[in-house]
């Protein structure tokens, strides 16, 4: 059986090849009735356009690259899901590339990826969002990119969340439960999130009139393992905290693991909470109190802004999404 072509779709929908192309590329100025007729023909004939033919016709690869250097698998999986959803809506493909942004040949490696795959644009995740040398290279080469939670959003497109405000709100929740000895497992200092969430923790402590205890502020790396290590240090303190606020869910789950190892009941003897509300937050026991950061939505929105710029379909910008508090069973009144 011969392959269905765009000409077959045009004949079946009683339109032109150009009109079919405009509908498939989601271009404006096509009457709704015509668009519906074309899409019905596409579905009936099970038409799948060849990416190679589209690339030749438009001088585009119809591919978006997602670059990440992040130890949290939960976070990256959610970002990928959002990027892929936005790509599929525009008949784009996605390539995903893990990298080490501190490597001396980091920019050269990215250049190699661009040369091999020739993506139409890039989605940058923290801390790559703030790699000055890479950003200069991308701007000089005129390759569009969108950033998720960059530390310096001015002049960028992508998506942001008020992380400092959200972190302060979590501390205020713990204070409302009667906790005064509140510890913080700090996120990776290379990430804007680590800096913003630490600042929010300090804001919350200050507003509550609580003095910071340096022993209660332990460095983590946005990973389960670093959460375990940090919590072990906190649990070993003579006057240990009654609550731990970890800067992400993976570290919070690591803290729950360390507490179980030490025979400390959660939340009876200690409350633990996180940030992000990735899938792991509801897979652990007890379910994790956390800040809901719509990570999947952020990946989707960043990609939509990028494609606006790539396709010239509108004015791309840096958009802001909201957060929500998710109160679950890992926090309770102070013992």
Automatic annotation (TrEMBL):
<feature type="domain" description="HTH lacI-type">
    <location>
        <begin position="4"/>
        <end position="58"/>
    </location>
</feature>
<dbReference type="GO" id="GO:0003677">
    <property type="term" value="F:DNA binding"/>
</dbReference>
<dbReference type="Pfam" id="PF13377">
    <property type="entry name" value="Peripla_BP_3"/>
</dbReference>
<protein>
    <submittedName>
        <fullName>LacI family DNA-binding transcriptional regulator</fullName>
    </submittedName>
</protein>
<dbReference type="InterPro" id="IPR028082">
    <property type="entry name" value="Peripla_BP_I"/>
</dbReference>
<dbReference type="InterPro" id="IPR046335">
    <property type="entry name" value="LacI/GalR-like_sensor"/>
</dbReference>
<keyword id="KW-0238">DNA-binding</keyword>
<dbReference type="InterPro" id="IPR000843">
    <property type="entry name" value="HTH_LacI"/>
</dbReference>
<keyword id="KW-0804">Transcription</keyword>
<keyword id="KW-0805">Transcription regulation</keyword>
<dbReference type="Pfam" id="PF00356">
    <property type="entry name" value="LacI"/>
</dbReference>
<dbReference type="InterPro" id="IPR010982">
    <property type="entry name" value="Lambda_DNA-bd_dom_sf"/>
</dbReference>
């Amino acid at each position: 059986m011969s392959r269905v072509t765009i000409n077959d779709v045009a004949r079946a929908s009683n339109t032109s090849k150009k009109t079919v192309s405009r509908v498939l590329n989601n271009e404006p100025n096509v009457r709704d009735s015509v668009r519906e007729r074309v899409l019905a023909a596409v579905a009936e004939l099970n038409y799948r356009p060849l990416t190679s033919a589209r690339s030749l016709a438009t001088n585009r690869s119809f591919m978006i690259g997602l670059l990440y250097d992040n130890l949290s698998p939960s976070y990256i999986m959610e970002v990928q899901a959002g990027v892929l959803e936005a790509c599929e809506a525009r008949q784009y493909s996605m390539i995903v590339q893990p990298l080490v942004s501190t490597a001396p040949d980091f920019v050269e490696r990215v250049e190699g990826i661009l040369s091999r795959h020739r993506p139409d644009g890039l989605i940058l995740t923290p801390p790559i969002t703030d790699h000055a040398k890479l950003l200069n290279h991308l701007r000089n080469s005129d390759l569009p990119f969108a950033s998720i939670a960059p530390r310096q959003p001015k002049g960028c497109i992508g998506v942001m969340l008020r992380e400092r405000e959200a972190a302060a709100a979590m501390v205020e929740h713990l204070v409302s439960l009667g906790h005064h000895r509140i510890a913080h497992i700090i996120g990776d200092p290379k990430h804007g999130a680590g800096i913003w969430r630490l600042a929010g923790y300090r804001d919350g402590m200050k507003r509550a009139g609580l003095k910071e205890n340096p022993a209660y502020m332990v460095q983590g790396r946005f990973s389960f393992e670093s959460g375990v290590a940090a919590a072990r240090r906190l649990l070993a303190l003579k006057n240990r905290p009654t609550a731990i606020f970890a800067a992400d869910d993976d570290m919070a789950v690591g803290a729950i693991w360390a507490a179980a190892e030490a025979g400390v009941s959660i939340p009876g003897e200690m409350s633990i909470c996180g940030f992000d509300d990735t899938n792991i937050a509801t897979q652990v026991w007890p379910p994790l109190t956390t800040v809901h950061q719509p990570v999947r939505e952020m990946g989707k929105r960043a990609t939509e802004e990028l494609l606006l710029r790539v396709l010239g379909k509108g004015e791309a910008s840096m958009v802001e999404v909201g957060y929500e508090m998710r109160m679950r069973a890992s926090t309770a009144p102070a013992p």
